[in-house]
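Record format v2
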Amino acid sequence: MIEQLSVQHLLGIKDLTKEDIELIFRTADNFKDVINRPIKKVPSLRDITIANIFFENSTRTKLSFELAEKRLSADVVNFSASGSSVSKGETLVDTVNNILAMKVDMVVMRHPEPGAAMFLARHIKPNVINAGDGTHEHPTQALLDAFSIREKLGRVEGQKVVIVGDILHSRVALSNILCLQKLGAEVMVCGPVTLIPKYMSSLGVKVEHDLKKALAWCDVANMLRIQLERQDIRYFPSLREYSMLYGLNKRLLDGIGKQLVIMHPGPINRGVEITSDIADSEHSIILNQVENGVAIRMAVLFLLAQMRGI
Amino acid sequence: MPTKSKLIFNKELLAITIDRLCYQLIENHDDFADTVIIGLQPRGIILSKLIFDRIQHIQPNTQIQYGELDVSFFRDDFRRRDLIVPSANKMNFIVEGRRVVLIDDVLFTGRTIRAGLDALLAFGRPARVELLVLINRKFSRQLPIEPDYIGKSIDTISSEKVKVNLNPEIEEEGVWLISEE
């Protein structure tokens, strides 16, 4: 078993080995114990300063990273693009270098451009953690999703997971596919033809356009949100039609005659991709995913910080 | 580098010493009503389990609360020395107002115990904390920490190592002092 990560930055699942992911999970097990104690804080990162730089809106991820950092006792500075000098024409590297001049050790960044985190990692010394770069990757979400499957079903290997919805615009989908495959799960994507990129089959992923068939095949269904804000053209006639064909509801689940684990990375559009009774049912692990997100992010921060000299 | 090893405890002496430590604990803690026994991960665990089992054997009607504490996230050498690999915590109780006996195999610099005291505070404010160690390496302390119960105190220099084996499945139980020739 390895004791340190093979990477200096967490830019995407693509760069991680199976052993890296297993190390992150083992460490997250310890942190899950920590965050369920009466006193949820440990002093490991007390001499580390972390900048959370968000060029795109985020509620869950930003909050989750900030809690993870604070529970590790790191000093935290937050930066949002709205109301900053980015709107005055400053470049990404200039913005970040200005923040780094204030002696920051690690950077967590979300950015609308694919590859932004990789670009940043090439130009600065601190460890970079990608909190989502456009439609490319969202590694910590994929890690927490796989960790939640492992927690619920005991292991990830051999599980059949279907990712349903807007695959084309989803960084969660790509990171999830890579992560689940590295851990030995079988992955299927399901959605309208227009929302499934052509390269999907080259990733070794099954493609299905009939939700009922996809559900009958899988053990776990990960429902994605339709990202209307990223859709520059109309990919399907109406939300109502999408919901009728690709929305998860009780009637559909009852019809397949087996128990599935239901996941959603949030934010949920209730009544579109999933109905309320399913989202709030005992088979849904949506809130476990949120809790595990903090443990996973603590593990990633701890393991990356550990590789920094003093 | 060739090394030589000197036997400190053989199997029989080890059993006698652990027995003695158990009786000392019983003398001071009576029925263990307010006392919890906590082993420090990773290397104090086998000793703490042995002591826990032995006390229950000597006093069969005693109910003792037992926990295992991992100090990894509280260490002061994070990013400074070897990689820190965390172990599991087993603490199903809080220590608020209780008497705590911390157990580790070897006391050397005292830094693990300092981290242990910090880690313990996450589970409440104990009324009193005592320290039990099998081997006390004298003259090597870097912090003002001394044990309350000692299996044996030995004089060592920092380049020497103390090897403790309490698991008969690995090799015969015993304690050795390993030094360079």
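The longest strand of chain A covers residues 127-133.
Chain A has two domains: 13-137+290-307, 139-289.
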